[in-house]
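Worked Example 4.2. Read the sequence first, then its C-alpha cells.
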Amino acid sequence: MYNTTLLMDNVSRGNDSMCAKNDAFKYPLYSTIFSIVFVIGLITNVVAIYIFTCSLKLRNETTTYMMNLVVSDLLFVFTLPLRVFYFINQNWPFGGLLCKVSVSLFYTNMYGSILFLTCISVDRFLAIVHPFRSRAIRTKRNAKIVCVAVWMLVLSGSLPTGFLLNSTTNDSTGNATFCFENFSSKQWKSHLSKMVIFIETVGFLIPLILNVCCSIMVLQTLRRPQTVSRGGEMNKKKILRMIVVHLFIFCFCFIPYNVNLVFYSLVRTKTLNGCFVESVVRTIYPVALCIAVSNCCFDPIVYYFTSETIQNSIKRPSQMGRSYDVKFSEALQSETHSSLQWSLRSLKAKVFHNESSV
C-alpha cells in the first residue's frame, strides 16, 4: 500500500458527507516531489547499474542484494512520469492496465526495498558477529536464492492488490478518470484490510525488528576489546557510520508511512470514527507517502558511498586488480574478521617458532 496515491482519497462516502476534506495540497505536493525523485532516482540508479555491471568487477552476496535493490528502485522510477502527469491534470488517460501496473510497482518498490535492505543488514551481521560460522551460508548462490524468495514474496502481495481490484473510476461528470484513489469501503473490508495486515507484518514489522536487532548485535561485537587492533578503531567508525545511515534511511523513509497506513486502514474500515481522526490521518498520509517515495534516491547514496570498496573501484580502477584477493564482504565488515584472522596467524606463528626452538 505503498502507493495509491491515495488510498486516502476516498474515506468512506458516508464520512465524506460529514467530514470536510483537507488534503487538497496533495496534488501539487506529489507532482513536485515525484518530479524531483524521478530525476534524482533515475540518475543515481542508472549510475549504480553502470558501476555494478561495468566498473565493479569484484562481486559477492552483498552486491547481489544491492543489485536487486537497484532494479526494484528503477521499476518504480519509470512509472513516475505517468504519475506526475496524473497529479497535475487529475485525470488518468493511460488505461486501466497501466494503472494496475503502476499500483503494483509502487507496492513492489516499497516492500522490496525494505526486504533487500534487511537482507543487507542480516548479511553484515553474519559477516561481523559470526565471520567463521557464516562462511558456508554467505555465498552468492544462497544470496540469489534469497533474492528470488524476496521477489516472490513481494509480488504475491503487490500483484493481487494491483490487478484484482478495479484501479480506475470515472468522476460524476465523466470528464475525468481517477487512478489510485478509488478503493471502496467494501474493497477495504474484504481485501485491502487483510493485505495491510500481511504487508505490515511481513513487509515492515519483521524487517524492522531484524534491522534493529542486527545493528545492536554488531555494535556490541565492535565494543569487545579483542576487536581492537591496528587500524581497528578506524574501521569501527566506518561500520558505525554505515549502521547509523542504514537505520536512519530505513526508519525515516518507512516508519511514518507504515504507521500511518495502519491508522488509515482502521479509518477506512470504520474501526476508528470521527472527523478529527480522519483529518489527521488524511493530512499526514501525503507527507508520509512522499517521504517513503524518496527511498529510491537514498538507497544508492547509502550503499555506494559508504562502501569503501565501491568507492575505490570508482576512484582507482587501475588498482582493483591488486585487491581481488580481498573479499568484498570483508571490506563491508568491521576489522573484527580480519583482526581475528591476524591474531590467529600471529598465535600460530609464535607456537611454531617456540616448537622449532626447543
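Now turn to a second chain, presented in exactly the same format:
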Amino acid sequence: MPSEHQRVSGDELSSLPETPTTPDALSPPADVPSADRAARRAVVLFPLLVVAAGVIGLLWPAHFTGWAPTVPWMLGVVMFLMGLTLTPPDFTAIARRPWPVGLGLLAHYVIMPGLGWLVATLLDLPPQLAAGVILVGCAPSGTASNVITYLARGDVALSVSVATVSTVVAPLVTPPLTLLLAGKFLSVDAGSMVVDILKTVLVPVLAGLAVRLAVGRYVDRVLWLLPWLSAAAVAVIVLVVISGSAARIKDAAALVFLAVVLHNGLGLLLGYAAGKLARLSRPASRAMAFEVGMQNSGLAASLATAHFSPAAALPAAVFSVWHNVSGAAVAAWMSRASRRS
C-alpha cells in the first residue's frame, strides 16, 4: 500500500530505462503483470482506508481521546516494517550511483522545505498550520514514491536509494531545517526533535534491517502482508490526528487542502525539472519527481503532535492521502506517455 511505508527492493533491478522493475513486496519478480495489478490496487485502496479513518476520527472524536501517545508507536511500526524490506543491494546501489542519489537528496531537502515555507507565507497560514506545512516539507521521502515510480515506468533503483538515504539522514537534517523555517511561526526544540526521530525512525528501520538479515527467508514469505500492516498503522495515525483537531477542521479544511495541493504539486513539478536540468534520463527524472514531491507524512504528523499541537498535524494527515492520489494520477499519465513513445 503506497504511503510513507511501502518499499520496493532494489534487488536485480532492470537496466532497461522504460521497463519498470517488480516490487518484491507486491509479487515475485518474474510476475510483472501481477505486480502491476497489485500495486495499482494498493494505490486505490490505501487512500480509501486513510479517508475512512479520518472520517471516523472526525465524526466520533470523543472515542479517541487520549490516543495521542500511540502516534509515535504507530510510526515506529511503520518504519520497522520498512526496515524489513531493505536488503544489502539497496545500499550497494547507493555507492554505485553517488551523483544522482546525491542530487535527489539535495533536491528533496531544498525544494520541499522551501516550498513549505513559501506556501505557508503566501497563504498567510495561522502559526500552527504554517509550522505543520513546513514540517511536512522537512520530512524525508515517503517510500510510497518507490511504488509510484514503478507504476510511472521510472528508475526504481534510484527511487529506493534516495528514499533510503533521506530517511537515514533525517535526524541530522529535519530538525535544523524545521527550526530555520518554522521558528518564526512557533518555538521549535530541535534537540528534542532529533531524539524523537532517532527513536521513531532510525532505530526501528535498523531493527527491521537486522531482522531481515538474520531471518530473511522467513520475512520473504510475508513481504506481501507488510504494506497492509503499515497501512493500518498510518490509518491509526490519521485517525488520532483528525480526532484531536475535529473542532478546528471545519474552519481550516479548505485552507489546509489548498496548501497541501500546492506543496505536493509544485514538489512533483520541480523534482522532475531538477532531474531534467541535471540531464538525467527520463526514468531517473520521473524518480526525482516522486522522491521530491512525496513525503513521510507519518513522521511529520508524529512530530507535529509531539512538539506543536494536533492542529499542526493536520497538513500531514491531509498530505498522507493526497500525495498518493496525485502521485498515482501523475504515474498513470507518465506510463501512458511511455507506451505512446
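Notes for the reader: Residues 244 and 310 are 6 Å apart (CA to CA). The longest helix spans residues 190-221.
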